[in-house]
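Subject: design request, 440 residues
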């Protein structure tokens, strides 16, 4: 496999629809890391390591030294938003990072001015930005294509990836226009409003052969038409919904409880947050998209139908409330009713005082770098090995998603080993003890 990977030479353009809290925290963070002001904590590509070979070999390189990833100094950021604020202004209003830190990277951030958005207010009613393109769905797709190509030329980028950090769109399901590329393109021509704005960006990127990762819970590339296009243009896609606060905790804890055959009767999860994401999610149609994305994880991990005694009665409830005083500092509470030996009940309470965008920014960075690696490694279509980062991982139709974070990590690491021609690790380890016996 190793010889097929093209080097990460030249600049990588990371284009982001939605220059809000997550995107600006990512861009400011990369600038701060480049200047040596801070470190990229939370990013597996930058700080994580990977075991290679047998434990006796003691090989644990940093992931970035093992696989050829774009260097942070070679990244160029750009994007679109329905508000015209540059990235410095947008980051200042998002209030995730403190003013002193932002000021130290002001020069780099001010230069990044959003392009006009392909937007339809019906998909996010609580937004009132006017920095938007006009035209039919087809015209919007053409304009986004032009934006991407202009950005690439102006910034001398060797490669481009798109990461959707735009607001969560209202809940919609795939309809007949989303089932094939032909139907999708006919719908673009007919200006069919069932094509969501995020799909317009994804279509433009994939048509050009540029990877697309979706950080929000809306379907976007998770429709047959765009999967078909990604295969046609040999382009990787990944989605959906960054796995950050409460769901991260859920996919860490639930596999552990299931591993010990502890039963679960109920899992109540509630959140308060006060950023623009919270405002958009305050609309019931937008909340529904998020709710569906968050609900699936427990069922996939616990498989109640195969384990009815342990999980057959589980009651899973999720609430998100908009609470401006908390800003981006989301607070979540989980109450978990579990039972053990002979059915005796116990409770677990989690109160996570997290910072939404601080958790999401490194995920957006890793997704951009890994999906670029996938493209250079001639991988196309759904990149299930990136499920590790996502709340509602896209899979082939009929394939149950894997939400257990430890299995997701193993899949990610084995994919990297496979790409680099290293042995996959099964953690069997019996041979160590066999050799030991023979040596005695
Ligand atoms: N922060 C997290 O922990 C987290 C976790 C999982 C998913 N997400 C998702 O990531 C996305 C970004 O989150 P955020 O906190 O940065 O939200 P945000 O509201 O701060 O930023 C989103 C930005 O997208 C812009 N936008 C909306 N529609 C657009 C369009 N069609 N084209 C271009 N720009 C558009 C908005 O104007 C806004 O500036 C949301 O969908 C959120 O649900 C965030």
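Subject: RE: design request

Done. Sequence follows.
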């Amino acid at each position: 496999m190793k010889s097929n990977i093209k080097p990460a030479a030249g600049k990588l353009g990371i284009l982001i629809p939605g220059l809000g809290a997550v995107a600006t925290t990512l861009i400011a963070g990369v600038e701060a890391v480049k200047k040596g002001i801070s470190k990229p904590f939370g990013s597996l590509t930058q700080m994580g390591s990977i075991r290679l070979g047998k434990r006796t070999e003691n090989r644990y390189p940093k992931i970035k030294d093992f696989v050829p990833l774009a260097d942070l100094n070679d990244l160029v950021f750009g994007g679109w938003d329905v508000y015209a604020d540059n990235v410095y202004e947008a980051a200042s209003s998002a209030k995730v990072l403190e003013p002193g830190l932002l000021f130290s990277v002001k020069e780099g951030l001010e230069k990044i001015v959003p392009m006009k958005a392909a937007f339809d207010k019906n998909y996010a009613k609580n937004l009132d930005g006017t920095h938007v393109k006009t035209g039919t769905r087809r015209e919007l797709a053409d304009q986004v294509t032009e934006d991407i190509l202009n950005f690439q030329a102006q910034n001398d980028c060797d490669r481009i990836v798109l990461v959707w950090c735009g607001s969560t769109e209202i809940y919609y399901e795939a309809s007949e226009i989303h089932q094939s590329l032909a139907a999708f393109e006919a719908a673009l021509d007919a200006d069919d409003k069932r094509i969501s704005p995020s799909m317009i960006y994804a279509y433009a990127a994939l048509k050009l052969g540029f990877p697309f990762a979706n950080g929000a819970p809306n379907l976007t590339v998770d429709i047959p038409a765009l999967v078909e296009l990604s295969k046609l243009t040999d382009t990787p896609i990944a989605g959906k919904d960054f796995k950050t606060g409460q769901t991260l905790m859920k996919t860490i804890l639930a596999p552990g409880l299931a591993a010990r055959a502890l039963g679960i009767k109920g899992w109540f999860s509630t959140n308060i947050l006060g950023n623009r994401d919270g405002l958009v999610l305050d609309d019931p149609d937008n909340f529904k998209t998020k709710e569906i994305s968050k609900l699936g994880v427990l069922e996939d991990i616990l498989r109640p139908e195969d384990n009815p005694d342990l999980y057959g009665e589980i009651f899973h409830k999720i609430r998100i409330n908009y609470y401006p005083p908390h800003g981006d500092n989301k607070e979540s509470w989980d109450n978990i009713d579990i039972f053990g030996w002979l059915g005796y009940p116990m409770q677990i309470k989690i109160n996570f005082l997290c910072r939404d965008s601080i958790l999401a920014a490194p995920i957006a960075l890793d997704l951009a770098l890994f999906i670029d690696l996938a493209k250079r490694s001639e991988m196309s279509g759904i990149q299930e090995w990136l499920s590790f980062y996502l709340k509602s991982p896209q899979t082939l139709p009929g394939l149950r998603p894997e939400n257990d974070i430890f299995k997701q990590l193993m899949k990610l690491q084995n994919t990297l080993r496979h790409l680099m021609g290293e042995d996959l690790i099964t953690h069997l380890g019996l041979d160590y003890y066999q050799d030991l016996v023979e040596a005695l």
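The chain has 17 helices and eleven strands.
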